[in-house]
Amino acid sequence: MQGRQKRKWGDRYDGWKVRRLDPMFLLIPHIMRTRVDAQVYMEEEFNISAMEELVKQQKESIPGLTLLHVILAALVRLVSQRPRLNRFTSGGNIYARNHFRISMMVKEEMSDGAPEACVMPYFEMTDSLADVVLRFNVARDEALRAAGNSTDSTVRILGAIPNIIRRGFVNLMRGLDSMGLMPRLINRVSPFHSSFFVTSMGSIGIDPIYHHLYEFGTTSVFVAIGKKRGERDDRTMLFRFVLDERICDGYYYAQSVRRLRGYFKNPAQLMNPPDAVVTDDGI
Questions:
Q1: N or C: which terminus of the chain carries fewer CB neighbours within 10 A?
Q2: DSSP-derived secondary structure for 151-191
Q3: Rounded mean pLDDT, 170-177
Q4: Residue 67 · residue 48 · CB < 8 Å
Q5: What is the pTM of this model?
Q6: What is the per-residue pLDDT for 234?
Q7: Which long-range contacts (CB under 8 A, 24 or more apart) does 32-38 make?
Q8: Per-residue CA distances from 282 to 17, 36, 100, 154 (Å)
Q9: Do 41 and 242 meet the contact criterion of CB atoms below 8 Å apart?
């Protein structure tokens, strides 16, 4: 994995500096200095019938398996083959993240007052579907415990201090992060420093929105998942992506979506680890 490579001058603890870039991509972070400047939008409707059939077939061999798990496993597999999707921009440089983590808000039950927590499982690029189910479920269960998780605790602490101190703290963290010097503890509890941010809006019965990328942090991809559409034997689901165009070009994104469609069409391949993991060619 990329995380086992030797750290060089200019690398960060959470990513390796991308040194082999087209000259235009060396300039783009200075032209589009924020994620709001650089975010682009993409909408795709995918057929999910094969994934639903896989869930039905494997629900006994993989306890707790759901359609969401298959989608997450497809995203993990996608990044194992399309590693530029796991890049981020900070301080005018582009980095290849040395881990893969997904952030996702979950509720204990679908009601206004139900507890909500941020789940941030780490995945390995060699994970199979069963591995993804286990990692996600463990992280979800920990996050939903009554005592709350470390992210919730951090937010509560920040919420208790005066506004001027809170603003100063966030600005300090933003400045340190741009230099790769933000404390690792903050990185670990921050959902804004994940590879992807995923929201399942279909779970509340609505279609997805285009969710902006957060300016704080390093997340370059936001995936919003909608409700199921169509008949049981021809079911589809709408996805909306918001992407930081500074990390890779439009062709790379388009080819990545085509590959994702292939995983959804033939999800059985997610049952096993990938034949090989592709390393980012820019580091």
A1: N
A2: HHHHHHHHHHS-HHHHHHHHHHHHHHHHTT-S-HHHHHH-G
A3: 94
A4: yes
A5: 0.92
A6: 86
A7: 32/245, 32/246, 33/92, 34/215, 35/89, 35/213, 35/214, 35/215, 35/220, 35/244, 36/212, 36/213, 36/215, 38/89, 38/244, 38/245, 38/246
A8: 8, 24, 17, 35
A9: yes
**Chain segment 64-91, per-residue pLDDT in tens:** 999 999 999 999 999 999 999 999 999 9
Instruction: Give exposure, 57-89, as e/b (b: 16+ Cβ within 10 Å).
Output: ebeeebeebebbbbbbbbbbbbbbbbbbbbbbb
Given a contact cutoff of 8 angstroms between Cβ atoms, the answer to whether 94 and 87 are in contact is yes
Per-residue pLDDT, averaged over 193-209, amounts to: 93
Query: In the chain, where are the structural domains located?
Result: 33-141+191-271
Q: Would you state the structure tokens that stand for residue 14, as one six-digit string?
A: 């959470």
> Is the pLDDT at 3 greater than 60, yes or no?
no
How far is Cα 234 from Cα 243, in angstroms, rounded to an integer? 28
Q: Which amino acid is at 28?
A: I
Report the pLDDT averaged over residues 239-260.
96
**Cα 192 to Cα 202: distance, rounded to the nearest angstrom:** 22
Cα distance between residue 88 and residue 99, in whole Å = 12
User: Quick check: helix, strand or coil at residue 135?
Assistant: helix
